[in-house]
Amino acid sequence: MPRGLKPDLNPSMPANKTTCQSLDESANPLAQLSALLEGDMAAVNDEIIKRMDSPVAMIPQLASYLIAAGGKRIRPLLTLAATQIYGGAMTRAHGLASAVEFIHTATLLHDDVVDESAERRGQPAANLVFGNQASVLVGDFLFSRAFQIMTDDGSLDVLRILSSASAIIAQGEVMQLANAGNLATSMKEYIEIITAKTAALFAAACEVGPIIAEADVSAAQAMAEYGLNMGIAFQIADDALDYDADRTKLGKDIGDDFRESKMTAPVILALAKADETEKIFWSRVIQEKDQRDSDFQTAQNILAKHNAIEESLRLAEQYGEKARLALAEAPDHECRAILNELVTYSIHRTN
Amino acid sequence: MPRGLKPDLNPSMPANKTTCQSLDESANPLAQLSALLEGDMAAVNDEIIKRMDSPVAMIPQLASYLIAAGGKRIRPLLTLAATQIYGGAMTRAHGLASAVEFIHTATLLHDDVVDESAERRGQPAANLVFGNQASVLVGDFLFSRAFQIMTDDGSLDVLRILSSASAIIAQGEVMQLANAGNLATSMKEYIEIITAKTAALFAAACEVGPIIAEADVSAAQAMAEYGLNMGIAFQIADDALDYDADRTKLGKDIGDDFRESKMTAPVILALAKADETEKIFWSRVIQEKDQRDSDFQTAQNILAKHNAIEESLRLAEQYGEKARLALAEAPDHECRAILNELVTYSIHRTN
Fold it and tell me: pLDDT value at position A111?
């Protein structure tokens, strides 16, 4: 099918017959990937809806509250794309992509309890609507379901990759918790934390593709390397966006990390250049967690003065470059081209 | 080795060489099982300590806070005993018994967050010491570790049994949450809830034994049936104990279910016999959750008047009988004899 032609996809057509369709060149890479893999994503969504069902009504209610709200679906898209690139069975990818999304959703539900977040995906966080208790338990349910899906798939390699990623995510979250308010957090420790809490699942989502395709070990390594570095870049950019004043205009909820006294890239970079007054400021708002109304604005001003956002994005770009290099080892494919563009997009996106 | 002879167990001896040792006839069945499987339980404890380790210090700290506090270790003992009965490889049982205990510990950690419990295993609940956030995350870590252990073991049957049990536990907990304060909860619904939240893991812990031993399907079914019914009996007894005045003298924390407005067997039975005044009382304390200082004492008095504790235990005995019948299908074995005694003990224990 020629590129640039919008396919008239029949959503009821068997999803495993879907192959690469045309691109909408004007869209961002995630939208491109979604369009290209539209039939497969429809199959993933069907799988998600089927698997989050339960006779206990509150479970699909709460799960769909979060899942239906959208989000970028970046992780299942990574699994689908990586499977396509290596010519794996897409029916298997549908199930495993939904398992990856369930693990992600479970961590979001538990993260919201942890962070007492006010908003998630542009709506009040699930725990504020359904309560902390239900959020913890439905997270556990989705997590268990993810392992049921993997068990049904039957690959011990996939089970090993995703159970390991899950343990690493939890470790990363605990590390982040233990480091909140710790001004001495180094950039190395910060990278360690985001590698665990974010990049490990990106890596696993990508690695599953060549595993499904039964490609050789180096293929799995290359895709894991791509996912890992893209994930680090993605998270650094995310942490920079949390201080980005322009996003307030877009109706985005920003300043969460600041309010939770998280040590993220922009703060670590600004702290390294801080004068005495600024050091006292960071010590009060991060270490002592003593924050007043105007403090977030002050923090944004200090970051701007030291170009901390731009420097954060430059750091993200270094990991992005590693991601691109790893991806270059994958076979030439339309999906590979988009994954390559996705690196840049992850760093320079505005949402 | 003759029964009644206390073996001089060398804790450093290879755990897989441990077979059935002698019984201390005076002890309760759990103590008997622990003595009989002492070497195996030592191996399980080693596995637990090894597997809960993490470079993130807070994880082993929090996990060992709960795990080291003891508890009955009934679930890993069930896995060990069931494996012994069918002659399975004990080295595999050590790993999988620790996976079962990790799943249980994870649910306890999440349950404490959920229930805002004050005490667990005779010490302040972990969430009160380490915070809700850490409890949720360390629970997730242990849960992930459980699946890593199972993946290392490599049996998809075990993975299927335990991932399914995990999903069912979460469903049971959500069901319980949704039913709290609902006076219309029937005994059938209550049994459904405790089957999911408690008995499913007992069943899975038992079923793993014959699976390890590669026994036939009927063996796995019989052990699952034993575990399921013993688990139901165990939980009914647990719920009866929560209203047992004698336990206060033993320093036990009772009245948790009452304070959380949970509909458990004693309340359901007492409600069925309630006069108008009592109905108004239950409606206020359970449905409206409007509780005063003397209400728990009043509840205990009402339960005593209607013999609701005794009736609960009679109900537990019905499930206990089903458990004994299922167990009778297992081959004759010292461990089987103790598992049979364990049914009675589970119902009539005082802690």
Answer: 85
With beta carbons under 8 A apart, name residues in chain B contacting A114.
132-133, 136-137
Determine the average pLDDT of the residues in A220-242. Answer: 97
Alpha-helix residue ranges (DSSP H) falling in B16-89: 29-36, 38-51, 58-67, 74-85
Rounded Cα–Cα distance for residues B218 and B214 (Å): 11
A211 touches chain B (CB under 8 A): no
Q: Residues of chain A with pLDDT > 90: what percent?
A: 74
CA distance A197 to A110: 12
**Cβ of B159 under 8 Å from any chain A Cβ?**
yes
* Sequence spans of domains, chain A: 28-348
Q: Return d(Cα A118, Cα A279) in angstroms, integer.
A: 29
Tell me, what amino acid is at A51?
R
Q: Is B189 left (phi over 0), alpha (psi -120 to 50) or beta?
A: alpha
Say yes or no: A175 contacts chain B, CB-CB below 8 A: yes
From CA A317, how far away is CA A314, in angstroms rounded? 5
pLDDT for residue B180: 87
Read off the pLDDT of residues B17-58 as tens digits, 9 standing for 90 and up: 334 343 334 569 999 999 999 999 999 999 999 999 999 998
Give me B316's structure tokens. Answer: 């537990």
CATH number 1.10.1040.10 given to B27-348: no
Pairwise CA distance, residues A67 & A65, whole Å: 6
For the stretch B268-296, pLDDT in tens is 999 999 999 999 999 999 999 999 999 99
Give the closest-approach CA distance of B243 to chain A in angstroms. Answer: 24
| Residue A99 pLDDT greater than 90, yes or no | yes
Mutate to test the interface with B, among A136, A168, A197 (most CBs of B within 10 A): A136
Displacement of CA A178 from its chain's centroid (Å) = 22
Residue B181's region, left for phi above 0, alpha for psi from -120 to 50, else beta, is left
Give B128's pLDDT tier (boundaries 50, 70, 90).
low
Q: What CATH number does domain A28-348 carry, 3.30.160.250, 1.10.600.10, 1.25.40.20, 3.30.420.280? A: 1.10.600.10
Task: Name the token pair of A123.
Answer: 């709506």
- Give the span between the Cα atoms of B83 and B92, in whole angstroms: 9
Q: Residue B322 corresponds to which tokens in the numbers above?
A: 């089903």
Give the mean pLDDT of A278-284: 97
Whether the Cβ atoms of residue A205 and residue A172 lie closer than 8 Å to each other = no
By the 8 A CB rule, do B103 and B150 touch? no
What is the spatial distance between Cα A297 and Cα A111, in angstroms, rounded to a whole number?
A: 25
Reported as a pLDDT band with limits 50, 70 and 90, residue B1 is very low
